[in-house]
């Protein structure tokens, strides 16, 4: 049959504002989580990761929050720039992170308005 | 350090043919994973190789196979191509160590089956 494209949620923000991208993960046994950014024509680019023994981790302009109680992950981008426009994926693994087998979310498209 | 390199960048094949894709991981990375990305299914795990051994396998038919060489370079083969195999094939490498090591992706091979 004909495949149907995934309808990616879209987040549209003004340049300079903060962005929050959310992800609900599926497996309560997952213990390692990663955020990726994918620009058109490129492969996913690693942004930040977090292990299940942490609630928060900060990088350069990015913060990841993990709420294991409700199986929720979020990526906060401070002072969003036009170069941040891309599709963002969360990924999880319940295999202690020592594997290349990740389960990816469907992705969120971030649009930054100048 | 050079990133993950995938060749070729684009491929056009006919149904029934076979294809081989190549991946050179980041220097020092021993784990190589392959993913298929389509608009309909998103990013799906194919398999992972670590030290020349297949460590994990996704839910794809046996027409999809791979191997890893002693220098960690990897190849992926798809036999008897079907129209539904048209996709972006992504290779990712990591150290493969315990406790979580993020995957670093190449820019993919775009396969079109006609």
Q: Main attributes?
A:
heterodimer; A: 114 residues; mainly beta; 49% strand; globular; disordered N terminus; B: mainly beta; seven-stranded mixed β-sheet; four-stranded antiparallel β-sheet; 53% strand
Outline:
The complex is a heterodimer of chains A (114) and B (114). With 114 residues, chain A is mostly beta strands.
Show unreliable segments of chain B. Answer: none
Provide the helix percentage of chain B.
under 10%
Global morphology of chain B: globular
Secondary-structure content class of chain A = mainly beta
Radius of gyration of chain B: 13 Å
The chain-level mean pLDDT of chain A equals: 90
H-E string of chain A: EEEEEEEEEE
Number of helices of chain A: 0
Radius of gyration of chain A equals 14 Å
The termini of chain A sit apart by 40 Å
Quaternary: heterodimer
Report the major sheet of chain B.
7 strands, mixed
* Poorly predicted spans of chain A: 1-5
Separation of the first and last Cα atoms of chain B: 37 Å
Number of strands of chain A: 10
The percent of residues in helical segments of chain A reads under 10%
**Largest interchain contact:** A-B, 28 and 34 residues
3D shape of chain A: globular
Largest sheet of chain A: 6 strands, mixed
Give the SSE order of chain B as H and E letters.
Answer: EEEEEEEEEEE
How much beta of chain A, percentage-wise?
Answer: over 45%
Structure in words:
The complex is a heterodimer of chains A (114) and B (114). By secondary structure, chain A is mainly beta. Chain A contains no helices and ten strands. Chain A has strands spanning 10-14, 19-24, 32-38, 45-51, 56-58, 62-67, 72-77, 86-93, 103-104, 108-113. In chain A, strands 1, 3, 4, 8, 9 and 10 form a six-stranded mixed sheet that branches. A four-stranded antiparallel sheet of chain A has the order 2-7-6-5, with no helix packed on it. Chain A is globular, with a radius of gyration of 14 Å. Mean pLDDT of chain A is 90; it is low at 1-5. Chain B has 114 residues and is an all-beta fold. Helices cover 0% and strands 53% of the residues of chain B. In chain B, strands 2, 4, 5, 6, 9, 10 and 11 form a seven-stranded mixed sheet that branches. Chain B has a four-stranded antiparallel sheet with strand order 1-3-8-7, with no helix packed on it. Chain B starts with a strand and ends with a strand. The model of chain B has no long low-confidence stretch (mean pLDDT 94). Classes of the chains: A mainly beta (114), B mainly beta (114). The A-B interface holds A 3-6, 32, 34, 36, 41-46, 49, 51, 89, 96-107 and B 4, 31-33, 38-45, 48, 50, 55-56, 58, 84, 90, 92, 94, 96-108.
